[in-house]
Amino acid sequence: MQLLKQCISAEWLKLRHSHLWAVLLALPVVSALIGCANFSINRGALSHEWYSLWSQVGLFYAEFFLPTLIAICCAYLCRLEHLNKNWNTIMTAPVPASGIFAAKLAVAGMLMAGVQALMFVLYYIGGKVIGLVSPLPPELFGWLLRGWLAAVAICSLQLALSLRIRSFAAPVGIGLCAAFAGLGMYVLKAGLLFPHSLLTIGMGVLSQTSLSFRDQLLFCIMSLLYAAAFGGWAIYRLRTSDVTA
């Protein structure tokens, strides 16, 4: 446990002077602005106040901006290892492969929790600026929490890709393509079979109908399975394959 804490602290040190923070702030702001603007333009047809606003803000955020943000974040967390032959140093250090991956996933998860909290603030402020007076949807915190759980599962996949692919852009491109594929899988009612579709299901962006207890349980199980499966694959590859420094 102490070793994991040290690995997490090392990951935070890498981010301290980075420009990743600007991206973490900018993309949620842009998605909120687009969603609020679209709601204002079509307000005559969107009569369910906070629910309608969430359908607009959440659509842009969960379907396009958040998956892209996850891919960028994970690629950046692996960027330093791919520079200046740093893999040679890391893989000969007294740190297990599981510790390397777990630390990166923990940091990515914490960053996504911050992004979800920021999205809540932007959604609330946007609604008040627009003039919504009804109470916030009681499902809101469930949407945000399930969105975070799905984001962690996707982080596990994107980290697995970024740990093996030296290019920064390639995993980001794969993540963006996967976001569109996830939307297609949701439309085909096979969302649980694809990790990126979990964002659509969990955050209620296309349907604000409350999930049943069974559906919520199945959602959580699939999210954890994806996170464990991709994490296990990444750790196995780190242990058994030579890295490209």
From TrEMBL:
Keywords: Membrane, Transmembrane, Transmembrane helix. It comes from the Bacteria. The chain crosses the membrane at residues 20-41, 53-78, 99-125, 140-161, 168-188, 216-236. This is ABC transporter permease. It comes from Paenibacillus hodogayensis.
